[in-house]
């Protein structure tokens, strides 16, 4: 009954579903607080109180038919201008509303961007490991993913390997920093290195290559680390942003694309992306949530909520003898499996009611991903289990 | 810079933009209330007060992380069950939450449905005239639109012509009732006729053919006319619904798909559609608006607002001598152009500050569409202009 293109995706989906169902069974059997579920990247820091206040204020203050009505497919102009000025203030850029396109979260923003610029058969280079749903988005437009490897210990891009991945079919380089699943933040040096290779390749191949910077975790960066704003280093950059993590609003589906003036034929690309937003069926980002962002542009979840978890989990695992790098951003820890087959390691962890995702689900075999967007207690209470697990592997 | 697939769509878009810009220029020159703009299908009946009340209540009563958080890609289970029961109550169906998939409006719902079932090269049969954005959606999945003609005076499907449109490549018949741009409601006889042809063709061709019933105007049906619920007449029916018109919430992007148990491999199709919702980048319908629907499932805009306009415009135009059928639903009137080239007629109307859309924009040449989702005053005040326009054409 279902389309040929969806069939393989549904098979993959059953595997994920099986994992969820297993977690549910465990919770039913042992009790919710006795299961240490690190499998889901679901933001759980409290939504800033400004958000709900803004919702009530807006509903009282704004005329219904405008608030709930259609606007330009790119979004409300006042909201777009507010966001542009906010980025300018925090990143030293020079955007205005004509560079900001409101989208149904970053996932839809990525689809809008790819619909706008990607032709069938063209290549999208992505650094491993990575969020495998990117494959779906590229597949939506019949593009091909080319995996570029990263340095084995730092997960920063291997620039020589990256350069060899660029071909006369490359259309997009998709980067994600702070990074899912490693928690790495790409350094300024890395961004400059990527940019300089792409500048050279654009000339050499006489074609435009875009960076799409997927940045839903931009605000989740710890210890004051700098997350370079990619448009400042490479002209043909489109940024995809989401408020899912910065405001703990993932269900509301609100985000934006940045299409800078410096991007080639910027105005045409922007207009085309606005239309793509319509053509893929979104039409526009949800109107009330756009207005919420207009009023809450400075709001942020309490970063210390995740930071406390980050430190506790990292330190706890290191103490057990596990090998991992300290994440600089996002809410994930990428831990080296003590055995090559990390699925076996995940299976063993279930004995201690610990749920983790095999790195192969992120094109990163030999590792496991732990999402620490959980309660602090979950982390503390999971530690005896991790200790036993480590002992099992002779750590 | 832009993808090959988007290029032709952008050319078409410039024509629409030119029309809007012309309207804006007119408004600037003559004043907003001196321009009679019937070009936009933008709901303008007041949003029912229950909606804003529900928004404020929900924000106060529901836990933030659930309210604004991720849920199943199909939507909140309680909301889906509420909607299922509402349809059962009003239509005599037998749905439950497992038949209801929340979507980012009907436009996205249609894309989810097509992503789920349509293969490249397969055909989607659509009755003319029709909302041409359907072409985009079919094109998103590399399908082909086959236009089926309707009866010249009633715009009810010509069943003999329809039957000849069904081939061994037909996958979907897309119907829309109440209808944009004609305001026609498909009678029970019509729906039965379509269903019986499809039953026969499914057997004859040994393939599954789906009806997708796009029903954003379902609640806008006048004089108590019955709008048959298509799932009751044909098993392989998917309904796409939106609250854009029934609650005047088009900017909020909230709607649903109905995938009945009777549909072949219903469960697989439902699961695939849930995943398609994720894969096209929507992930889920906006969470707060889902909850709003859960509380406002019985709310409706005041139908008399549009009905008054419908009668005034229809009677006014008939009095002028124009030829049109009385619309039974939606908020459009499809008027026969007094000359073959309806673009010329639209151009002539601009002299009287009247803006209408040429029927060719709906694959319905020789007609013009007037959207009467405008103030009553706009209709009354436009009449002297229509009289002069009629006189120009010797009516």
TrEMBL record, chains A, B:
Keywords: Aminotransferase, Transferase. It is an enzyme of class 2 (transferase). Transmembrane segments: none annotated. Its EC number is 2.6.1.-. InterPro entries: Aminotransferase_I/II_large, NHTrfase_class1_PyrdxlP-BS, PyrdxlP-dep_Trfase, PyrdxlP-dep_Trfase_major, PyrdxlP-dep_Trfase_small. Residues 35-377 form the Aminotransferase class I/classII large domain. One of its GO terms (molecular function) is pyridoxal phosphate binding. Its cofactor is pyridoxal 5'-phosphate. It holds the Pfam family Aminotran_1_2. It comes from the Bacteria. Belongs to the class-I pyridoxal-phosphate-dependent aminotransferase family. This is Aminotransferase. It comes from Hominibacterium faecale. The lineage of its organism: Bacteria, Bacillati, Bacillota, Clostridia, Peptostreptococcales.
């Amino acid at each position: 009954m279902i389309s040929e293109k969806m069939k393989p995706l549904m098979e993959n989906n059953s595997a994920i579903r099986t994992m969820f169902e297993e977690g549910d069974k465990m919770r039913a059997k042992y009790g919710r607080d006795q299961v240490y579920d690190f499998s889901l990247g679901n933001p759980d820091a409290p939504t800033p109180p400004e958000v709900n206040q803004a919702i009530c204020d807006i509903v009282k203050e704004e005329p219904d038919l405008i608030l709930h009505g259609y606007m330009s497919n790119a979004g409300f102009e006042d909201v777009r201008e507010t966001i542009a000025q906010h980025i300018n203030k925090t990143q030293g850029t020079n955007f205005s509303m004509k560079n900001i396109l409101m989208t149904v979260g970053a996932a839809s923003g990525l689809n809008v961007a790819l619909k706008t610029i990607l032709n069938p058969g063209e290549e999208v280079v992505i650094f491993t490991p990575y969020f495998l749903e990117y494959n779906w988005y590229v597949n939506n437009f019949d593009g091909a993913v080319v995996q570029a490897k990263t340095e084995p210990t730092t997960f920063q891009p291997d620039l020589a390997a990256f350069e060899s991945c660029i071909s006369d079919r490359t259309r997009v380089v998709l980067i994600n920093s702070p990074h899912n699943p490693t928690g790495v933040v790409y350094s300024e040096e890395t961004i400059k290195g990527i940019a300089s290779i792409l500048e050279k390749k654009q000339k050499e191949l006489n074609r435009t290559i875009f960076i799409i910077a997927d940045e839903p975790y931009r605000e989740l960066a710890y210890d004051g680390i700098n997350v370079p704003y990619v448009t400042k280093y490479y002209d043909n950059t489109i940024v995809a942003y989401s408020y899912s993590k910065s405001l703990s609003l993932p269900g509301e589906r609100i985000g934006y694309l940045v299409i800078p003036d410096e991007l080639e034929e910027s105005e045409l690309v922007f207009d085309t992306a606005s239309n793509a937003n319509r053509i893929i069926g979104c039409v526009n980002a949800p109107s009330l949530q756009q207005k919420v962002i207009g009023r809450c542009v400075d709001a942020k979840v309490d970063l210390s909520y995740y930071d406390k978890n980050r430190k506790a989990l990292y330190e706890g695992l290191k103490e057990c003898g596990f090998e991992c790098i300290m994440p600089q951003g996002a809410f994930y820890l990428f831990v080296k499996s003590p055995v090559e087959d990390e699925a076996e390691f995940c299976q063993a962890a279930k004995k201690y009611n610990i749920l983790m995702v095999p790195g192969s689900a992120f094109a990163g075999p030999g590792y496991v991903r732990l999402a620490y967007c959980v309660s602090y207690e979950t982390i503390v209470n999971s530690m005896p289990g991790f200790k036993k697990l480590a002992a099992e592997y002779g750590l």
